[in-house]
Amino acid sequence: xxxxxxxxxxxKRAFIRVDFNVPLDKERRVTDDARIRASLPTIRHAIExxxxxxxxxxxxxxxxxxxxxxxxxxxxxxxxxxxxxDVTLAxxxxxxxxxxxxxxxxxxxxLLLENLRFHPEEEKNDESFSRELASLADAYVxxxxxxxxxxxxxxxxxxxFVREKAAGFLIAKELKYLTPLLKGxxxxxxxxxxxxxxxxxxxxxxxxxTRVDALLVGGAMAYTFLSARGxxxxxxxxxxxxxxxxxxxxxxxxxSRVEIVLPQDHxxxxxxxxxxxxxxxxxxxxxxxxxxxxxxxxxxxFRARVLNAATVFWNGPMGMFESPEYARGTRAVAEALxxxxxxxxTTVVGGxxxxxxxxxxxxxxxxxxxxxxxxASLEFLEGRELPGIKVLEA
Length: 394
Hints:
- It is built from 15 helices and 15 strands.
- Strands 3-4-2-1-5-6 form a six-stranded parallel beta sheet. A six-stranded parallel beta sheet has the order 9-8-7-13-14-15, sandwiched between helices.
- The protein has two domains: 4-171, Phosphoglycerate kinase, N-terminal domain (Rossmann fold, 3-Layer(aba) Sandwich); 184-381, 3-Layer(aba) Sandwich (Rossmann fold), CATH 3.40.50.1260.
- The chain is 37% helix and 15% strand.
- With 394 residues, the protein is an alpha/beta fold.
């Protein structure tokens, strides 16, 4: 797989697939520009090498229709601020108007195409649409790791119609830190998984069990595992149709001598919302109450495990961290990762809500790597081939 710095870009039309799928507030201002910032090294390199830069991304789920609220205009405005130069926004991503704008691009100028998903052909990986996108480019660069697990026109379909192809610096960085988690991580290797559903994480759990020394489980998914062990969990969220699956996972872990560490105590309340009285219970939860965060004993146990590890992968919050009453467990995990990083451990945060949380706590730059792709990082660690990566290989 080539990297962008191996391409001769001077005067060429460089089509760079970026991931500007960023959150917007009611005034349509970007509230978290981390993904835009992550793309800057690749974009700046293309500008410095005098490419005619064409950026393409999706935003949200417009379902193949033009949805003005999902225009990439706010992302383009933020990018312009970060680059300290004009960024032209096209009113579409294909068509005669776009071809005219591309034809008028001078060396070092930047054009941002409008939301790719305004066209249903993007997600369908339509060949005609792929050819239209490819006709804009002399060289193709993918720097959108967050969509690398999707076989769409802009991530896969158009690539075979462009003469040169390469990975951007962001994708290279993602692979640099995620690949060792699959192949020879330094031991002890610890994985921390949270979030709502066992069903969302079961494949990655099964893969991680062949590599990790221990697996720490928090978040709502912990209650399905606790319930499978016969521990009363009150009215906590339990995937009842996944109890047998959870039991099999626990049995498999025991046979493989991989320790699955579940919460010893919990911060509980009567309803899943902030502003209510809370208390700590555990390991069982009384009737009428539900667990919304890991408790203080669990925090200490998890922290001790993290500080003893040489490699740590974390995906998923430990509780309903959006409410301050239930954010302590997630924050404690983030802070433990920072401590472990200072001590020389490799610490990787697998995108999604855990990436949002560590950014909210102001700690994202204090761990080894925060992935820009939640779904993509999990599929990668499941051992699955990512179409957007595979197509870049020579």
